[in-house]
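lol ok so funny story. i was supposed to be doing the assay writeup but got distracted and ended up predicting the structure for this chain instead. priorities right. anyway since i did it might as well share w the group, maybe its usefull for someone
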Amino acid sequence: MPVLRQIAQLGHPVLRENVRPVEDPSDPAVQALIDDMIATAADASGVGIAAPQVYLSLSLFIVASRPNPRYPEAPAMSPSAVINPEILWRSDDLVKGWEGCLSIPGLRGPVSRHRRIGVRYLDREGRLREEEHADFIARIFQHEFDHIQGVLFIDRVEDTRELATEKEYVRIVMGDQELGVRSK
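and the output, tada:
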């Protein structure tokens, strides 16, 4: 049965450490970790989570897009384990979009990411996968890939004056109507 793991918060050194590769994806401890990370991300309404966020400096993350309270418009997909990933190519076109992070609760900021990426990684069965991702899934992949590089989304915000609390983000994105404010 999966265990909900504690999530490392901004300021903890594990979020900035170099990771080591996963040697054996079939190791029962790695398989249990994957299950724990999927459960932890779901419980926290995340669309992804990286091993450093659960205090392990491993080249492993989960991409688990689905609509939830933090990302109501997220496309639904089955959670995927991404082990020892590489980004093979990035499109030239960048898209600025709002991001948050389970390790930085209550804060959002606009981040420019490549619209499309080509990636290579091992799945949880140890099979080599090469895929192309676009839009929101590409954003998740790049965000989680940053985590295994010791980079946080706030490092990529071009102007820190654009950072917003979660409550202000909702007002900005959803508008005043969603907050019960009526305009005249």
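The chain has four helices and eight strands. The CA atoms of residues 116 and 134 lie 4 Å apart.
back to the writeup now i swear
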